[in-house]
Amino acid sequence: MRIGVLTAGGDCPGLNAVIRSVVHRALTGHGDEVVGFEDGFRGLLEGHLRALDLDAVSGILARGGTILGSSRLERARLSEAAKNCAELSRRYGLDALIPIGGEGTLTAARLLSDAGMPVVGVPKTIDNDISATDRTFGFDTAVTVATEAMDRLKTTAESHQRVMVVEVMGRHAGWIALESGMAAGAHGICLPERPFDPADLVKMVEERFDRGKKFAVVCVAEGAHPAEGTMDYKKGEIDVYGHERFAGIGNRLAVELEKRLGKEARPVILGHIQRGGTPTAYDRVLATRFGWHAVEAVHRGDYGKMTALRGTDVVMVPLADAITTLKRVPEERMDEAESVY
Ligand code: F6P
């Protein structure tokens, strides 16, 4: 078989591990050929591709980013392309396509699949917010990076008796804030799922200082926002890809806390540091398993689906299940985290 692979949307540690695994399983397990499209769906539409052999994927397991490059494409352009997907498959002699990506990529994968292209998706996002899979690779790395950053920030915060407001990624779901906040022992965690009241954070910091503690760390997801009427904060605007650009809750909250507390507060925006660099062992393993299962699904003709982790098993689930709703942090997980502030 001739299998195409591409990585689309925001990058994520573990993408290269999937590509490597697909190539190994396809070539050595089945005697297939693999081609990689460059810069996501753009490579597919514009004919930028290259053959991937074992040499091409040698030494990339631990490398962050994606050797194929990535891009975001407007929905309209993809819908247009879906109409010609039989032509696209013919043009490249493709028997199947494995797109690796987040919600936008899996939506595009479904479009192509509905139009008749044999597609098997692989989910990725550091945000861990894709439904139908317990975990996405990249998440563990992001949590590890954010946790280490907060561990470091605690020592400098204590030296200066400051409040550190650490903004982590998480547009619509606060998984990174929840788990890194818990792992680092943050004293407040703000998630998009539960609007916060800055007065509660002020109370928490004052109580800590009354107990003789000399610093506090608040972990805030970029998509978190204050409850109505509790603080002046305007949410961000929508960009050309339909993504909300946030107004900077970390900066805004640090200023607000400083004003209300009369103590120094500093914002730290971790941003893309959470997405860059080498994946953790957990993410390398999950990504490698997803790649293996994607190739097996291709050989079974199990199309229109994506790999997913259920418990400890990798299973195939319909692409439609992955994109209908976002996986948000449930109430109980937030309660668990709050009980150890
Ligand atoms: O979807 C993952 C994510 O890391 C979000 O948490 C974040 O808002 C977004 O990507 C930013 O991506 P970019 O800067 O590439 O648009």
UniProtKB/TrEMBL annotation:
Its cofactor is Mg(2+). It catalyses: beta-D-fructose 6-phosphate + ATP = beta-D-fructose 1,6-bisphosphate + ADP + H(+). The active site is at residue 127. Mg(2+) binds at residue 103. Gene3D superfamilies: 3.40.50.450, Phosphofructokinase domain. It is found in: Cytoplasm. Residues 2-298 form the Phosphofructokinase domain. ATP binds at residues 10, 72-73, 102-105. The record marks 104 as: Important for substrate specificity. InterPro entries: ATP_PFK, ATP_PFK_prok-type, Phosphofructokinase_CS, Phosphofructokinase_dom, Phosphofructokinase_III, PKF_sf. Its EC number is 2.7.1.11. Substrate binds at residues 125-127, 162, 169-171, 222, 266, 272-275. PROSITE patterns: PHOSPHOFRUCTOKINASE (PS00433). Keywords: ATP-binding, Cytoplasm, Glycolysis, Kinase, Magnesium, Metal-binding, Nucleotide-binding, Transferase. Belongs to the phosphofructokinase type A (PFKA) family. Mixed-substrate PFK group III subfamily. Catalyzes the phosphorylation of D-fructose 6-phosphate to fructose 1,6-bisphosphate by ATP, the first committing step of glycolysis. HAMAP family: Phosphofructokinase_III. This is ATP-dependent 6-phosphofructokinase.
